[in-house]
Each structure stands twice: as C-alpha cells, then as structure tokens.
Design goal:
This protein has 434 residues and is of the alpha/beta class. It contains twelve helices and 21 strands. Strands 4, 14, 15, 16, 17, 18, 19, 20 and 21 form a nine-stranded mixed β-sheet that branches. The relative contact order is 0.17. About 2% of the residues have low confidence.
C-alpha cells in the first residue's frame, strides 16, 4: 500500500486525499499543477509543540526563531508571529520579507557566512535583535560600519563545536571542515571573541552553533550544549566577554521515509532545555538565554506538492520513468543531494503499489529527478501524483531554470483555503529583463 508519512493527510467520502480537510484533487483542479499545499494547522501545532517543551524544561528566558531558509513568504511570517516565534534570516531578502511579514526587528536574528556591507547596514537600520558574526573579517567590517554610524549593536558569534551529527555531508555544518563559523579546536573562536570584546563599537552577548540538519536523536544536541557552555565558562575568565546567550541552532529531523522515527518536537526542545540546564549547573554557570532555530521541523511535515503525470516510460529490465509537470525547479533536493520523497496518488490513495519507478521532472537535465525508487500504484498520463513532506527547502530553493514559472502556494486550515503565493506568469519571468 501507499504510505502516509506527513502530518495532516486524510481521505474524504469520495476516497480522495485531503490536506487540512480540503480535497487535494479539487485544489489541483482549481489552482492547477504543480501546486504547493501547506497545512496551516500542522505548522501551528509544531510551533506550539516546540514552545511547550521549552516552557516545561527551561527556567530562564528563551526564544524560538524560525529558520527562514526553510520557507520564506510573508503570509507564513504572519502565522509564525501569531504563534510566538521569532525569525532567523540569512540575507537582506529574507530580512526584508520578515519585516514585510510583520516581524518586529527585535525578534530577528541575522545570520550568514558572507554578509555584505549593504546587508549589515540594512540590519542596523532595521534594528534587528542580533547580528550573528561568522568570521574575523565580518567582525572588522561590522565594527567599522557601527563606528561610522555611532551605533553599538549587540552581536553573537557562530562557533564550530567540532561535532559530527551523522547527517549528509552537504548539510553537516558543525565540524571544523565547514565554511561556517569559528573553530574551537584551533583557538580561533576565543581569539576573535576576545578581539570583539576589546572593541567599543560592538557588544558581545552570546554564541551560536548549528551542528547539522535532519538529526533524529537528542545526543548531538546534548553534546553541543556541554561543549558550548564549557566555552562560555572559559570565556568568562577573559575581560569584556560575558557571554549570556546560547543559540543551539536547529536541525531537528522530520519523517520523509516510512522508516523514519524522529523525536517529537516537544521532546526535542525539552531535551535541549534539560541538557543546557544540566551542563550549566555542572559548570557553575547561570542559565543563559536560550535560542533554538528550527525550520524544516516546523514546515516540512505540513507540505504536499501535487503534479500531473505527463508520460510513463517503461524501459524493460532497466527502469520506469514517470514524468510530471514539475521537477528540479520546484524541488531541487534530489538533484542536489539525493533526497527522497514518499509519493502518493491523491485520486486513489488506497490503490496498491504495483511498481517501483523514478519520478522524473520536465527540465532538460538528466539529473532532474524528484525521487528515485519510488513505490507507485499504477499511474497513467493525466493522473495526479503527489510527494509528501515538501514544506521545507522546496519553494525556498525553487528556480526558473528552463524559464519555468514557480508554482503557487495554497494554505489550508480546517477545510478553509487561501492563496498565499500566486503562480508566476511568463510575464513575471521577464519582469527584470531590460
């Protein structure tokens, strides 16, 4: 049988797949395909889960800042703001969208490994809560900008804690061999932070790490908490560097495969809170202000992408290619690093699996594949085909390769539907052409 791996799916009396109480075939008929569908109720529930774990387990101030790189559009930010979330942004464009979406600057953390001078100016103009400095060059650039403006922004530093979270090579970011952050092992982090503490143009308040993505267990976060708090204790002995904020980043895993069994968000955030508390007590430190930055785990399980099958190409004793009207332009993750998505036929979700096939896109690219070795029912040209758990790193990574317009996003809650992002037109493709 076809497997359901994402939250919020059901069936109606016609036997059709539903998302948030709305018929997927009806949505596809009204809005066309490809189509991104997001279950708003699932997103809200995930926000509340992670906050509930922190409220239960942490006895000091904390913030949950949504990682905008996972999914970024204005209506989503309004929802997140209503649920008590902050925002983590990594570019001027994400910052602009977060502000237009209604986030207060005081709820925004500005990350990035190579921020431009213009972006730093923009962040200072906006008054973001925290600029997370990545490297020594950025520190000097920001200091010069702040001095010229007479501002004293509060900053934190991205640290590489040297932890391997056992994730994919391209999304493991806590090890020393990474483009992100300052290394602990070499003394680089201590040296740069000491330099920052000597500057009158900036105020150092905390440290940040992100050890990887799609992490299922809690042990890597427990280890990170101990490493980071030990560093905070060591830095307290240096003048001018009282680090009072600990940002453990994000990376909580979600269910893409039937075999995946991630820890619940409530349990994950509770464990992070308990780990920080235990490490602080052991080291004789006051509890720092704690920041978590989930992204995928909030929106990923809420997303479904719907396509129309264009052709089924069977190569005897080799493979079967089921071509759909989307592809790497709306979901590049399989092409980038072999990501897998579980398929389902929205018009016949109970149909038995009869084949294993490649779900191929329509781009002029051999690597344009949405998922390989996909268990499928008997699908034909004109049928709808959906892939699950696409609410993160699909729309946000979408492109116009082959001049394909990007799909719309509809949000559903308790059967009510609203268009959040309209479908791009051919005219949109030419909007910047001169």
């Amino acid at each position: 049988m076809q497997k359901i791996v994402m939250q919020g799916l059901g069936q109606n009396s016609a036997g059709h797949l539903t998302v948030g109480g709305a018929s997927v075939p009806e949505l596809a008929k009204h809005y066309g395909t490809p189509l991104y569908i997001l279950d708003e109720g699932v997103i809200r529930r995930n926000c509340r889960e992670i906050l509930s774990g922190l409220r239960e387990g942490y006895k000091a101030p904390f913030t949950v800042a949504f990682a905008s790189k996972a999914l970024c559009f204005t209506r989503l930010y309004g929802l997140l703001r209503e649920e008590g979330m902050g925002a983590d942004v990594v570019s001027g464009g994400e910052l602009y969208t977060a502000l237009k979406g209604g986030f207060r600057p005081s709820d925004i953390f500005f990350h990035g490994n190579n921020k431009t001078a213009a972006e730093l100016e923009y962040a200072l103009d906006a008054g973001v809560r925290r600029i997370v400095v990545d490297n020594a060059e950025e520190l000097e650039l920001l200091s010069a900008i702040a001095a010229r403006r007479g501002a004293v922004p509060e900053i934190s530093f991205r640290i590489k804690p040297g932890i391997d979270a056992h994730t994919h090579e391209f999304i493991a970011t806590g090890k020393i061999d990474s483009k992100f952050g300052l290394a602990l092992e070499t003394g680089e982090a201590a040296e740069v932070i000491a330099r920052a503490a000597s500057l009158k143009t900036l105020r150092v308040v905390g440290i940040h790490c992100h050890i990887g993505s799609q992490i299922f267990g809690t042990e890597p976060f427990e280890h990170a908490a101990k490493v980071m708090l030990t560093f905070m204790r060591d830095m307290r002995e240096k003048p001018g560097a009282p680090l009072n904020e600990l940002n453990l980043g994000g990376g909580f895993g979600i269910r893409y495969l039937p075999s995946h069994d991630p820890v619940t968000l409530a349990d994950m955030s509770l464990k992070c809170a308990e780990s920080v508390t235990a490490a602080a007590n052991e080291l004789g430190l006051p509890l720092p202000e704690l920041v978590l930055e989930p992204g995928r785990s909030i929106t990923g399980p809420a997303g479904l992408t719907v396509y129309t099958v264009g052709s089924v190409k069977k190569i005897p004793d080799v493979n079967t290619y089921v071509a759909v009207d989307g592809g790497m332009t709306d979901n590049p993750r399989c092409a980038l690093y072999g990501a897998y998505y579980e398929p389902i036929a929205p018009e016949r979700p109970d149909a038995p699996v009869t084949q294993t096939a490649v779900i191929a896109g329509r781009c002029c690219e051999s690597g344009d594949v949405i998922t390989r070795e996909a268990p499928l029912c008997d699908v034909r040209a004109g049928d709808l085909l959906a892939v699950q758990a696409t609410g993160a790193y699909n729309y946000s990574m979408a492109s116009n390769y082959n001049r394909l317009p990007r799909p719309p996003i509809v949000m559903v809650r308790d059967g009510a539907v609203r268009l959040a992002v309209r479908r791009e037109t051919y005219g949109d493709l030419l909007a910047c052409d001169q």
